[in-house]
Amino acid sequence: MATLGLSPDEREAIAKFQSEVLQPSMTSLVILDFWAEWCGPCKQLGPVLEKVAADYASKGVKLVKVDVDNDKVIAAQFQIRSIPTVYAFFGGQPVADLTPYRSEGQLKRVLDQLIGQLGVSGEEQALEAEIDPLIAMGEEVLEGGDAPRAENIFRQIAEMAPEHPEVVGGLARALLAQGRADEAAALLDGASAEGAKDPAIARARAALALAGAAPAGETAELEQRIAANPDDHEARYELAGAKMASGDRDGGADALLEIIRRDREWNDGAARTRFLQLLEASGLEDPWARNQRRRLSALLFT
């Protein structure tokens, strides 16, 4: 910003703008709110901006308010002709006009997009970078069958990020793998309202539902019933549960798909519901789950 010919007060305003907006915007996303005390819409939008900025502070978002009556030189530099006017700054430059977004939901959606596109660095992003490799390690150990060690890894990560959905979900599945369903359920029930919507929590809940479906055990009697009557869907459903409980997800999937093939509406679609739980518990990005989803689609749409 040019300062030639400006008064001392104007120079001070520009220096303040540089220290509060331009310099922080090198790493943070700065929301710049032009407002005035007499502006009714400004007073309505102000608390919304303040709440969103507070919620996103850990993601590297900062709110700076510019009173157009007191900081006329700044308002003139930006050619502000109506208020409220709201800009997002990053890297010393305006990157978005946020003025059209007036609700909390709208602002958060556009901020999420900007943060992702611009590589904004905040405490939350730094923590994610630190714990992501540890979460991957815990998942690898759990997938390898060492549930006690996976539990230990997830508990250590939880000390850094106790409400992280992937940490809560991973720890719950590690507890389930050790037969500690009650502990897993209590852990999942304690997840925050926002975290409860995360796919990692949904995956753990699906695994919990499957764990209570049927105990692993002898399947000979069930298999005999099915051999005598292939349409004994109850026996096949119980067989699927027993196979899943014993770790045979292929066998469980095969049994459920066979029920769907024979009578997809049996018991209000119970086999399909359980099959989808099995996929969710495996992780929807898991290659096995993707292959099973293709099998289900082929069955339903051919």
UniProtKB/TrEMBL annotation:
Positions of the Thioredoxin domain: 1-116
PROSITE patterns: THIOREDOXIN_1, THIOREDOXIN_2
Gene3D superfamilies reported in the protein's UniProt record: Glutaredoxin (3.40.30.10), Tetratricopeptide repeat domain (1.25.40.10)
Parts of the chain that traverse the membrane: none
Domain of life, source organism: Bacteria
Keywords, sorted A to Z: Disulfide bond, Electron transport, Redox-active center, Transport
Keyword Electron transport among UniProt keywords: yes
Protein name (Swiss-Prot/TrEMBL): Tetratricopeptide repeat protein
